[in-house]
Amino acid sequence: MTIHFVGIDRETDEDGCPTVWVDTTAQDLLIQSYQADDETTVACDALSPARAPIPPGETVVRIPKRMIPIIRKACDELDPGVR
Q1: What pTM was estimated for this model as a whole?
Q2: For the chain, what is the domain count?
Q3: Superkingdom, according to UniProt (predicted)?
C-alpha cells in the first residue's frame, strides 16, 4: 500500500479537516470529511438505486465544494490520461 497526501481543505481548523490522499497501489481515493447528518443520510437512503439502506461499514460523507480542485488533482494522479 502506497498512500500519499494530496491536499487539505484551505479553511481547515483544529476540529475539522477534510483531507484527500491517494493509494497508488489500490488506485483509490481516500477522503476524510464530515459525516453527513441523519436527515441527509435518510434522504440518500431513499434515493439509493438499490432501494436498500446504507450498509454497515459505509456512510455518507459530505465534502465541501471548495475541495473539488483537490479531488480533481487526486483523480489526475490516479488516472493521468483522462481529461
Answers
A1: 0.78
A2: 1
A3: Bacteria
